[in-house]
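User: I'm new to structure prediction. If I give you an amino acid sequence, what do you actually give back? Let's try with this one:
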Amino acid sequence: MAVPLLDLKAQHATIRDDVVAALMAVVDQQAFILGDPVGQLECSVAGLSQVKFAIGCANGTDAILLALRALGVGQGDEVITTPFTFFATGGAIHNAGARPVFVDIDPRTYNIEPANVTPAITARTKAVIAVDLFGQMAAIEQVKAAAKGLPVIEDAAQSIGASRMVDGRKVMAGEAAAIGTFSFFPSKNLGGYGDGGMMVTQDEGLFEALMKLRTHGSRRTYYHEIVGYNSRLDALQAAVLRAKLPHLESWSAARRRNASYYDAAFADVPEVGTPFVDPANTSIYNQYTIRVGQRDALQAHLKEQGIGSNVYYPLPLHLQPCFAYLGYNEGQCPEAERAAREVLSLPVFPELTTAQLDEVIAAVRGFFGR
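Assistant: Good question. You get back a string of structure tokens that encode the predicted 3D arrangement of the chain. For your 370 residues, that looks like this:
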């Protein structure tokens, strides 16, 4: 039995009528840019994230870029972040005119190691970006403490709806940072039918700045206080996301059940390192990522068996050719580099059947002769 890494058709089949109705409502209104669906989605995401303000934008990459701009990051500044993340995190820093400063990760969670942040701060440091990788929040309170008063952006592209217990209180992804950023890329737990993104904040001044930045620096039509961007979330995507949002919690719970099923099945396979979830965290498992010493051989074996898998990410950002100008060498972020050699993500989407899970498990166990 073939098992894909992700099956969006299976999800669509369960919500098709609601999504089509939502889309047709926008088509009938013929109002496609911003408008009521976007405002309603912003209110819903703000509520979910326990923040005062949410601002839709064109995609998750723009969300980071606009967040940096709103914080005044520009030419000559430095921004500290992790090298083990999707390219957009580092690319947005570069495109804001700043210099990415990469620090190594916690090898258990793959998130930025807070203890590495403070030593990297210089007079030029303007902000820190913590990434919530694979659906698990970074230790945001520890990163903020290590940042020594610098603003922290939480790149929560993979973690909408995830939470973390901080001082006895449940903190949602995006809530505790100066600005949190989300992506609605189709493969995300809450994915659109195209690109989309959102920024969240508790700060009214940052809210106003982000609202201007997404619409060419304007809050009043044809009057531009700053030079901004054309980065608006369109009404069709907002309608899709609003139709899907009521299902997000149950979808994430199903991913956690699938992850637990895998954990139990691989418990007696010492060659397979199953995901570590910080006890303070509730992960939404955007990915179920194992560590194996024979990663490439295992992936080839799974492909032969018809099992989908992927490597997130095969080359850390500090070693990417486009960042050669930064002067990093192999060995400077050893945990990120080791993770890039060992990680492999398996199917974990909510609609997986028990038979499909068993197929994946049998293929992995079979590779190790179990």
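You can read the tokens as a compact description of the fold. Here is one thing that stands out. The mean pLDDT is 97.
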